[in-house]
């Protein structure tokens, strides 16, 4: 057996400790699959004294993660610090400049600076692997970039944030409002004290930007992603969705359209019978559609120390075996310059739920707005009657352009009889 | 861009024509992802005159597929002839001996002769790729062998034969008996005129033997696979399964047990809520459980020209990029000699359905047999009453060893009041 692959790990949070535990627990099996042992030789973290449940004796310790890049006893740098700026970015860039392959779980860094980092990696001829950056233990990046590489991908979509999926699942199963479900997720450690990164869709947008770049072989373009989170999803809309045969999921969707690629993250109504509708709790799922392969669905654990470690070490085994792939699947010069399609041009069906005063003429006013904008209705649902009081009214449209729908929303919200901001949820025929 | 990768295709049936169509339709995209063009330069098939819907002009034509191995203008041989013996085997061995990488969709060849072929490939240092051999367009081999490579796999299971899944789905949805559903599958081209290879579980066994070798890093061992097909599944059992909250699927299951690896293909009752229970029609699914990644589920099209071509060309792209992996994930010397566990030692719950004469004492006789063999019952279901006539009785056991269950079956079948051969279906807690 050849010399071990010497690995430095920067960041010893739960994922970093998981990587160390995995490399120790499955060392023999990993050596067989990698063709050589994989050994951690150096680490960097903030607090040297903290007990992480894995022994660190014998490893070189660095206060400054960037110093790992210069250690001549390190073959590969694993970056698990996180964040699109600061030490994570500095370390990744320093390692690539030093000619050391990098494995990272950092979706923010790749979504924000991925284009420049991919160019740096290519210019130095150094591999950069990031299976752990999207969908945790699901090998979504390998499947898109290698397994489906022969396909012209038409769509890639997924449940990419376990926190949001847990909250939406809890709201549906226990008929809770968003704030209650969020508080429970926080108690269980599924949501951060400041949850905005997850619940506002930012994390899912980072992952979608990466998936879209891989699926369509184009430079990562986070700015083009339309992002809405789940704060405004109500228990009422989840119950009404159920009545209509849908489930509400926060999806990231990248799609090849006439004129370019659309990328968006927002709550969606998906048919209750679709495979992705049943992916509940903290699980993630990725759906990809290619012109030859048809539709592939993958599901699994999207986060957590052990699934994420599985992805990080798979990348290390690829590196040990010499299996290299350009960051976005093709060299930077061969990427496709297909433009982004703005959200205003999205076409699809919409669910619109209003609270209106139950009095004659209200429905006529509302449907008049839709008629004026040439928006046609598939169905309308009015629950119960309570003359003079507030009742919910649901309108489901046929395919409509987003720009028209936004205008309709503005006009309808301005009607006297409409009592609060209407809820708008896009219907996705997955 | 570098010189094209010159490919020879042996076998121009639907899959071979699909590979040619894919390489033509997506040539630019494939060249970008492969880092160089992939060009077919030679082909071999029986009937030169047949119209296959793809142009063959300019390609060298060989009557004898084995001659492709000797063509100096061929870098890679794609074997799509099929069958474990004859020209397919001769071509694969000749190509490897000539130092030419091989891509094959041939599960029978790998299941029967995979150990020797892997040794030949390794001894010559030549890659052998076979993504298309299992689960069609689902990149199950890449996921198991590379994506989950860091995991100690506990179980891999799947719906591996689309013909059987189509028949079982039709039986359930349209309340048909097996023979009717088979005839419909034959009319639609989902089953062969001689369907035994599919419906007797042989094809699924080939695929399971390959998956087990990959999952557990051990030499392929087809002889160890316990195989039962779906001929004896009845509409009555499908309806009773539904009542009990199960679906009947033909599964291939490989599992790490105390003392070794069990591999089996047989009809299973799976909980109706399990992801795999909803994979219907010609779709395939693969479930893998690893110690770090947890459970990963993949589904997609398991057969057909286009999904299979997607897998074949993914292998070609891997070869063009220089991404190589040993056949079973580790070199032959590093494979795990974990023994096989025989079916008699399987432990699980069983569904047993009898047709009995409805008269006093029958149930006491049946349950007496189970008591004598220390088999404990979870539930019993007797439908309707018809004194003196035949009625179905369903018994569901707690975990029981296969050997005891077989003995019980023999004794129960010998009881006077038991009218036909009892139906036995294993319950699988997926």
UniProtKB/TrEMBL annotation, chains A, B:
- InterPro entries reported for this sequence: ACT-like_dom_sf, ACT_dom, Asp/hSer_DH_NAD-bd, HDH, HDH_cat, HDH_CS, NAD(P)-bd_dom_sf
Q: Spell out the SUPFAM superfamilies in the cross-references.
A: ACT-like, Glyceraldehyde-3-phosphate dehydrogenase-like, C-terminal domain, NAD(P)-binding Rossmann-fold domains
Please name the catalytic residues of this protein: 207 (proton donor)
By its UniProt entry, which PANTHER family does this protein fall under? HOMOSERINE DEHYDROGENASE
User: Which keywords annotate this record?
Assistant: Amino-acid biosynthesis, Methionine biosynthesis, NADP, Oxidoreductase, Threonine biosynthesis
Residues binding L-homoserine: 192
Record-level Gene Ontology MF annotations: homoserine dehydrogenase activity; NADP binding
Q: Which GO terms describe its biological process?
A: methionine biosynthetic process; threonine biosynthetic process
Output this protein's name: Homoserine dehydrogenase
Q: In which residues is NADP(+) bound? A: 10-17
Does NADP appear among the keywords? Answer: yes
Metabolic or biological pathway, per its Swiss-Prot or TrEMBL entry: Amino-acid biosynthesis; L-threonine biosynthesis; L-threonine from L-aspartate: step 3/5; Amino-acid biosynthesis; L-methionine biosynthesis via de novo pathway; L-homoserine from L-aspartate: step 3/3
Enzyme class, broadest EC rank: oxidoreductase
Q: Which family does it belong to?
A: Belongs to the homoserine dehydrogenase family.
Record-linked Pfam families: ACT, Homoserine_dh, NAD_binding_3
Q: Which organism is it from?
A: Caldovatus sediminis
Superkingdom as given in the UniProt entry: Bacteria
EC number assigned by the record = 1.1.1.3
Q: Where does NADPH bind?
A: 107
Tell me where in this chain the ACT domain is found. Answer: 351-430
